[in-house]
Specification:
With 259 residues, the protein is of the alpha+beta class. Helix content is 21%, strand content 24%.
């Protein structure tokens, strides 16, 4: 029997989603709690990797058990009791045996938050960046992204990607009611470090180091050395994972402002 879990996590204490031999990961922590609760080894497959320190305000994973779980709601309650405070599970839904949290995901969305002033209450969840930024210039550059397919310029070095081709559907900056800058990017897939590298380069557009046309040239060059230093991990959130309706539909964590 296969179940999809809907969860969210603060990534500060973890080396990312992916299990590592010598560092704590979200996957390993979740598997440990499920093994204790279900009294047997459980392997969890996630919708994708998130890097060290990166957060997820919405994440999907699946796991298999030999027999149906009698009470999924009670199971979620007990699972949250076992998990640390920086991981929260909200839903557990039976799905088809071949439904796959990673391979059936057709769209993913990330949000990046920049706090333009010193704020002790958001410093662990945003990039506090005090240089004035021209959001209009940043959006002129960002709106070019759906026109490209090869994102080698923003791929992590030696990441062994089979392909650097991605289909970006949306990339947009906005300023929220509290003055924070919020970058939303949606695509069918993302490369390791891709969003942080894009954000870092767009910030350099906003502060005047590059023009929007320079940004176009950087993407077209397919040269990682030309992109900017990646933005810090703590401001990045995986915010949505979408599936074909016949596979799975989001049930938990209605989308809202992160802070």
């Amino acid at each position: 029997m296969r179940y999809f879990l809907e969860l969210r996590y603060n990534g500060a204490a973890y080396c990312g989603w992916q299990r590592q031999p010598d560092r704590p990961s979200v996957q390993q922590t979740l598997e440990g709690a499920l093994a204790t609760l279900l009294r047997g080894r459980v392997e969890v497959t996630g919708a994708g990797r998130t890097d060290t320190g990166v957060n997820a305000s919405y994440y999907v994973a699946h796991f298999d058990v030999p027999q149906p779980v009698a009470d999924p709601v009670q199971t979620v309650y007990k699972l949250n009791f076992l998990l640390p405070g920086d991981i929260a599970v909200s839903g557990m839904t039976p799905v088809a045996d071949d439904a796959h949290a990673r391979f059936h995901a057709c769209e993913r969305e990330y949000i990046y938050l920049i706090e333009p002033r010193k704020n002790p209450f958001t410093r662990h969840m945003t990039w506090q960046y005090y240089v004035p930024l021209d959001v209009e210039r940043m959006n002129r550059a960002a709106e070019m992204l759906p026109g490209f397919r090869d994102f080698t310029s923003f791929a992590k070095l030696n990441s062994n990607n089979r392909t650097n081709i991605c289909r970006v559907m949306q990339a947009r900056w906005r300023t929220d009611a509290d003055g924070r800058l919020c970058f939303t990017i949606r695509a069918d897939r993302f490369l390791r470090n891709m969003v942080r590298a894009i954000v870092g380069t767009l910030v350099d557009v906003g502060r005047g180091r590059y023009t929007p046309e320079d940004f176009r040239s950087i993407v077209e060059s397919r040269d990682l050395a030309r992109s900017s230093t990646g933005a810090p991990a703590q401001g990045l959130f995986l915010s949505d994972v979408r599936y074909p309706a016949e596979v799975f539909e989001r049930r938990c964590f209605t989308k809202c402002d992160l802070l």
